[in-house]
Amino acid sequence: KILANTLFLGKKVIYMPSCHSTNDLGLQIIQNTDTIEGTVIVTDDQKKGRGQRGNSWISEPNKNLMLSIILKPSFVKPADHFVLNMAVSLGVRATIADFLPSTTCNVKWPNDLFIGRSKIAGILIENSVRSGSIENSVIGIGLNVNQLDFGGLEATSLLSENGGKKEFDRIHVFEQLISNIEAQYLKVKSNKTQELKEYYLQHLLGFKQSMKFKSEYDFEGIIEGIDSNGRLMVGVNGKVEVFDFKEIEFLL
Ligand code: BTN
């Protein structure tokens, strides 16, 4: 199926009824130099979904969206990779907002989507770098759509948030998602980084608020922003400290 409402995202869609991981498939197909930008790999049943920090991503079959998008952002320097992260998080967030217009959904830095204390979507971006720029980016997205039971985990879905009665049409959510991500990625392409960053901060969970964190020790601090490398800036005792993804976790 070819998406009609986009310029280049989703013009080629590879559908796998079942697979190990759409990101793994994405990493394989970028080996072929003729892979076109905007190719999407989507599955209904992912057996070995991967998440960040080496976690696994587990999803009930046929209920949610699990997909990977191939981008070729060769105009982005590896040091600026966070712009991709902002664009994708905001595209996913906008989609959740489209289907749940009266619910607040925020981005938990760097790229988890949260409603209240529950995670509704996660993103795993894997870049390949060549000659000082990002040659390929495999953008993996897991968005909980119609799953209701999360086995006690703090997770939610569009359907759980909407009262649990009428399932969402996943194809419709998919099309909206692809189109929203393209809209944000076009901002990256036209170098509207400042606009993206303002929009990201506007939806950043805990921005300018006091939050609890775990680093070498547990502490409380105020999220002051994101630096140009995408690191989290936290004000602690009147001083701003910056943290890499590996160096800090939220205590929600
Ligand atoms: C996270 O929250 O830690 C990121 C989760 C990313 C999950 C998606 S599902 C589709 C794609 N394929 C994978 O193996 N992972 C991503």
General description of the model:
- There is one protein chain.
- The chain has 252 residues and is of the alpha+beta class.
- It has two domains: 13-202, BirA Bifunctional Protein, domain 2 (2-Layer Sandwich); 210-250, Roll (SH3 type barrels).
- Helices cover 24% and strands 30% of the residues.
- It is built from five helices and 14 strands.
- It has helices at residues 22-29, 82-99, 158-161, 170-189, 193-202; strands at residues 13-16, 40-43, 49-50, 56-57, 65-71, 106-108, 112-115, 118-130, 133-143, 210-214, 218-226, 232-236, 239-243, 249-250.
- The strands form three sheets. The chain has a seven-stranded mixed sheet, sandwiched between helices. It has a five-stranded antiparallel sheet with strand order 13-12-11-10-14, with no helix packed on it.
- A hairpin with a 2-residue loop joins strand 8 and strand 9.
- Helix 2 (82-99) packs across helix 5 (193-202).
- The longest helix is centred in the last third of the chain and has 20 residues, at 170-189.
- The relative contact order is 0.15.
- The model has no long low-confidence stretch (mean pLDDT 96).
- The structure holds biotin.
- Biotin binds at residues 21-23, 49-52, 55, 57, 66-68, 112, 122-124, 140-142.
- One of its GO terms (cellular component) is cytoplasm.
- Residues 14-189 form the BPL/LPL catalytic domain.
- InterPro entries: aa-tRNA-synth_II/BPL/LPL (IPR045864), Biotin_CoA_COase_ligase (IPR004408), BPL_LPL_catalytic (IPR004143).
- Keywords: Ligase.
